[in-house]
Amino acid sequence: MKGDIGGVSVEMEGGLVEQGGDTAGHVNKVGYGKRVIVKKRKPYHRRLNKKAVPKVPKALQELFVSCRETFKGPGTVPSPQDVRKLCHILDNMKPEDVGLRSDLQFFKPENVVKENQRVTYTTIYRCENFSLCIFFLPAKGVIPLHNHPGMTVFSKLLLGQMHIKSYDWVDPEVSYNLLHQPSQLRLASLKANDVFTAPCDTSVLYPKSRGNIHEFTAITPCAVLDVLGPPYSKEDGRDCSYYRDHPYAAFPIPNGESGKVKEENDSYGWLEEIEMPENSQMDGIEYLGPQIIETAL
Predict the structure, then answer these.
(1) What is the distance between the alpha carbons of residues 68 and 64, in angstroms, rounded to a whole number?
(2) Are residues 93 and 156 in contact, defined by beta-carbon separation less than 8 angstroms?
(3) Minimal CA–CA distance to 214: which of 180, 240, 235?
(4) Of 22, 67, 26, whose CA–CA distance to 225 is shortest?
(5) CA gap 205, 151 in Å, rounded
(6) Left if phi > 0, otherwise alpha if psi is -120 to 50, otherwise beta: which for 71?
(7) Which residues partner with 72 through β-bridges?
(8) pLDDT for 152-185, tens place per residue?
(9) What is the pLDDT of residues 60-81, one digit of tens each?
């Protein structure tokens, strides 16, 4: 399939070949590999010099161009129209668009889970306004409960099955000092607590709604494509915070400290901010999938 997106000629291409060795320290063969280039003999007759046109998977280039139009920088939230457009593109993306296949070693059911196997990530593209990343979770791998301050995030499960739990802060804020200890508990509303299987619809979270604080737990090996706008930046006040959740009923609010006691306990929980968990450590690997062509605006 050929077309033109943002001034770039695009053509759908297949996934990349599987490489033989481990991709990163604790992760078994995600499956990215470099292309093999075969040089052909030059013919004796005179050749016309043609300008090479880069080939990019149509969906990936379309995603990049749409992100560049959608994300206007820190402090902004995409319009509903832009959100729908991005979701449509992501909903139709396939693993092959980023060089992945379900038959790669990492995703095979017989792939033995190593002890303490960590999550791996790779960055397709990053700028000040947005980033495109893929997270690889081995079976039972966890991305702990964490937030996305001032960010809008699109998540597309490309391969595998995972459990997602997410929360939003209750407004007005209700905090409760647990047993007079320094740690603070803050009331949050449970937005999702479900199992998702690829292919499925893209999920979207906003700075203050739709489950801004979430946790991923892989049931089978998974690949998740994330679009973050803007990306994390400690310097700009968008550092990642981690949380531990507690059942609402475990710490009832004393009379007089809340204007309303929640009756549906299962729909709420207490979140306690914690230091970065040990299982939040990730290994970064080089992205060797199809490349985006960055064109002038």
Answers:
(1) 6
(2) yes
(3) 240
(4) 67
(5) 8
(6) beta
(7) none
(8) 999 999 999 999 999 999 976 667 666 555 568 8
(9) 999 999 999 999 999 999 999 9
Please give the DSSP secondary-structure letter assigned to residue 99. Answer: T
Chain position carrying tokens 């399939």 = 1
Conformation bin of residue 116: beta by default, left when phi > 0, alpha when psi is -120 to 50: left
CA distance 150 to 199: 28
Q: What is the pTM of this model?
A: 0.81
Q: How many residues does the structure list for the chain?
A: 297
* Cis amide bond preceding 172, omega within 30: yes
Looking only at the bridges linking them, the beta strands covering 131-137 and 242-247 are unpaired
Beta strands in the chain (DSSP E): 2-5, 8-11, 119-126, 131-137, 142-146, 152-159, 161-169, 175-177, 184-197, 203-205, 213-218, 222-229, 242-247, 268-274, 282-284
Rounded distance between C-alpha atoms, residue 151 and residue 206, angstroms: 6
Output the CA–CA distances (angstroms, integers) from residue 67 to 2, 18, 145, 238, in the order listed: 21, 29, 26, 19
CA dihedral 73, 78, 84, 86 (to 10 degrees): 10
- Separation of alpha carbons 291 and 61, rounded Å: 9
